[in-house]
Design brief:
globular, 18 helices, about 50% helix, about 425 residues, mainly alpha, binds s-citryldethia Coenzyme A, 6 strands
Length: about 425
């Protein structure tokens, strides 16, 4: 916690309450309201937490006005260009970029923990073949506490470390096997001679009937997509992981809760919904009708992949993703990709429309990612599992940070009650 930088005076009724204020290293000052209920017998009210800091954190910082995203101070565009996912994992977990030796040790640790307990494959087989891969991931990750119970004691720093590595290492295998199971193909085991992204691509696309060579360009693009999704402050799924962890739940249960939350179309599920929306629009001449619908208050339709709670300028991840989409489609020789054409025209029209300008709606991380994943050969149902795979390191880093916080208390919000006040039971014959 940073030192007190001032005092806020809150006056209401006949009360005047002094509340301490703290200044962060970046971003807005905060007013500490922890003593407000005890002193003033009132709650604050902030559904959706638009103005509420739930914790202090040193991992990721977003400046929504500047369109800036920093991981331990390093800008996302520099990390996407110069780093790679496992190095970003190290940075998020331990706070600094690793030395050559530290990176080599970390990568070897992750590489040697990519296999699943052999019995876990029977968990996959319990699902229907048409199960959504996210449903499979929620189930299998939650069940990891039954297979890896030697890394569930959150009070043991060594077990916290083992659980962290296991989750980062095994998520690609779990995601790939969830995909293979739903398409009726055999599971492909990880290989230790492949890098993280190449291993994932091979587990997804290799079949026993023929050799599979990982395209290094796709592997680089895949790795960059992982980096762009790694962490993002206290978003809905990270807050879910933190709240679950505040009760002392084991790490696998907490990450399963994060996966479940991420699945929603307002959050990580937007990448699947966005590509499906672009396909539904179909051609550039259909765009105006969808822009009209997005602006119509009586129409629940929203432009998927647009808007953000924090970014009121371009999402820096979307910029990198857009460049990557151009590169990957070009390198794959996918000319005249109608979906990409619709996406670029939709972005152009929306950004010139007064409604989107006034509400500061820009493309977010989910707007272009689906186009790249589609070009790589993934079905839309695999888009959010890939987001979950990448975000696991963010969830784990935040989970570790919270457990190391001496001020940790169970999260238990209050409410503004608007239901009936106390009343007596009414017998059925009198109702
Ligand atoms: C992610 O939090 C994170 O960091 C998330 C994430 C991460 O890395 O973890 O960045 C990942 O979840 C990205 C967002 C993916 N979701 C989508 O693309 C779904 C479409 N976007 C929206 O549903 C919406 O923009 C949200 C959910 C992303 C943000 O919602 P907010 O901040 O609660 O904003 P809001 O719903 O209050 O909208 C403000 C106004 C509203 O109009 P008014 O009521 O003021 O008249 O903008 C409108 C909204 O109707 N609006 C949209 C819109 N998004 C907001 N109108 C049309 N299309 C949209 N996409």
């Amino acid at each position: 916690m940073t030192n007190q930088s001032g005092t806020a005076k809150l006056t209401f009724g006949d009360q005047e309450i002094d509340l301490p204020m703290y200044s962060p290293t970046a971003g807005p000052d905060v007013i500490d309201i922890r003593k407000l209920y005890a002193q003033g017998h009132v709650f604050t009210y902030d559904p959706g937490f638009t103005s509420t800091a739930s914790t202090d954190s040193a991992i990721t910082f977003i400046d929504g006005d500047k369109g800036e995203l920093l991981h331990r101070g390093f800008p996302i565009d520099q990390l996407a260009e110069k780093s790679h996912f496992l190095e970003v994992c190290y940075l998020l977990l331990y706070g600094e970029l690793p030395s050559g030796d530290q990176l080599e040790t970390f990568e070897s640790l992750v590489t040697n923990h990519t296999m699943l307990h052999e019995q876990m494959q029977f968990l996959f087989r319990g699902f229907r073949r048409d199960a959504h891969p996210m449903a499979v991931m929620v189930g299998v990750v939650g069940a990891m506490s039954a297979f890896y119970h030697d890394s569930t004691d959150i009070n043991d720093p060594h077990q916290r470390e083992v659980a962290s590595i296991r989750l980062i290492a095994k998520m690609p295998t779990i995601a790939a096997w969830a995909y293979k199971y739903t398409i009726g193909q055999p599971f492909v085991y990880p290989r230790n001679d492949l890098d993280y992204a190449s291993n994932f691509l091979r587990m997804c696309f290799s079949v026993p009937a023929e050799d599979y060579e990982v395209n290094p360009i796709l592997a680089r693009a895949m790795d960059r997509i992982f980096t762009l999704h790694a962490d993002h402050e206290q978003n809905a799924s990270t807050s879910t992981v933190r709240l679950a962890s505040s009760s002392g739940a084991n790490p696998f249960a907490c990450i399963a809760a994060g996966i479940a939350c991420l699945w929603g179309p307002a959050h990580g599920g937007a990448n699947q919904a966005c590509l499906e929306m672009l396909r539904e629009i179909g051609t550039v001449d259909q765009i105006p009708e969808y822009i009209r619908r997005a602006k119509d208050k009586d129409d629940p339709f929203r432009l998927m992949g647009f808007g953000h709670r924090v970014y009121k300028n371009f999402d820096p991840r979307a910029k990198v993703m857009k460049q990557s989409a151009d590169e990957v489609l070009d390198l794959l020789g996918i000319e005249n990709n109608e979906t990409l054409k619709v996406a670029k025209e939709l972005e152009k029209i929306a950004l010139e429309d007064p409604y989107f300008i006034e509400k500061k709606l820009y493309p977010n991380v989910d707007f272009y990612s689906g186009i790249i994943l589609d070009a790589m050969g993934f079905p839309t149902s695999m888009f959010t599992p890939i987001f979950a795979l990448a975000r696991t390191v963010g969830w784990i880093s935040q989970w570790k940070e919270q457990l190391a916080d001496p001020q940790l208390k169970i999260g238990r919000p209050r409410q503004l009650y608007c239901g009936p006040t106390a009343r007596d039971y009414i017998d059925v014959e009198d109702r």
